[in-house]
Amino acid sequence: MASETQGANEGEGTYYVPAQSKWPIVATVGLFLTLVGAGMMMNSMSAKVDDPTGHYVFFAGALVMAYMLFGWFGDVIRESRSGLYSAQMDRSFRWGMGWFIFSEVMFFSAFFGALFFVRFYAVPWLGGEGEKGVSQLLWPGFTPEWPLMNNPDPETFKGPAKLVDPWTLPLINTILLVTSSVTCTKAHHALVADNRSSTKNWLAITLVLGFVFLGVQGYEYYHAYNDLGLTLNSGIYGSTFFMLTGFHGAHVTLGAVMLLIMFIRISKGHFTAKNHFGFEAAAWYWHFVDVVWIGLFLFVYIL
Question: How far is the C-alpha of 73 from the C-alpha of 275, rounded, in Å?
Fold first, then answer.
């Protein structure tokens, strides 16, 4: 994410091969601990057991991942600024980031697919519609509707009392993210024009908008849990709501951290007007999470 020096314009036929690195194995350990911890936390919540072990394992994994990212990208930045990277390496970084974002598109496509399957197939089947309408025999009195306020088994999964009003906090967050996408683009244009002061100003505004978004989403979760009865245990709508918006919030957090690092690097004099792929990659990612949020706003909150 950091091919910004004159090295990117030299050595068209060369390809830098880095020395052996410990970072892949460190990343493997961090991912393993994070996923195991997350699984333990979910099992504890499902069993309604107050066991903090999962939290400790999860945060230990998160710390290992943070250490890995700091060290690995630090090595890449040092190599880039030393002029070790060629134009071929620059293309490799672009392809790599492109495929990474594509994998994230597939990640969210799976969750949107689950939402659409439940909404247009599973719930109508339980209500007696379609080729599998015999499923209504499980809960004869169930009335299919979406959003699902009254679950088939309300004694086990009590539905939410109310839903989040899309024209309040979600609309505010939509405006925040769309505006941040514009300010991020303005920062990129300023960098291309070699106006570093303007780049930092627009990027600072983007960061403020991003962190305000996360604050608003945190308050929305508090409001949903305490005032609306919309929780992870309120049925399939609550599960899909928090699954989609929660993972998106995690991606916004990652994108904001990436942009914060870009702000620090620009302040330290990194990048040039022609070679600044580290910034471009972070901007691509930020635009991606903005587009995903528009899909969430439409299909989770409104439609």
Answer: 17
pTM: 0.85
- For residue 133, give every residue at least 6 positions away whose Cβ sits within 8 Å of its Cβ, in sequence order, or none: 124, 125, 127
Angle between helices 236-267 and 87-117 (to 10 degrees): 160
> In whole angstroms, what is the distance from residue 2 CA to residue 286 CA?
17
What is d(CA 202, CA 42) in angstroms, rounded to the nearest whole number?
40
Length of the chain in residues, anyone?
303
Nearest CA-CA partner of 191 in 126, 136, 273: 273
**For residue range 104-156, what is the model confidence (pLDDT) as tens digits?**
999 999 999 999 999 999 888 888 887 777 777 888 878 888 988 888 887 77
Cα–Cα distance measured from residue 297 to residue 303, given in angstroms and rounded to the nearest whole number: 9
User: What CATH number does domain 6-16+85-302 carry, 3.40.50.10860, 3.90.1150.10, 1.20.120.80, 3.40.50.2300?
Assistant: 1.20.120.80
What are the structure tokens assigned to 251, written together? 């991606």
Residues whose CB falls within 8 Å of the CB of residue 65, separated by 6 or more in sequence, listed in order: 27, 30, 31, 34
Angle at 248 between CA 242 and CA 253, to 5 degrees: 120
Tokens of 64: 């290992």
Contact yes or no for 23/97 (Cβ under 8 A): no
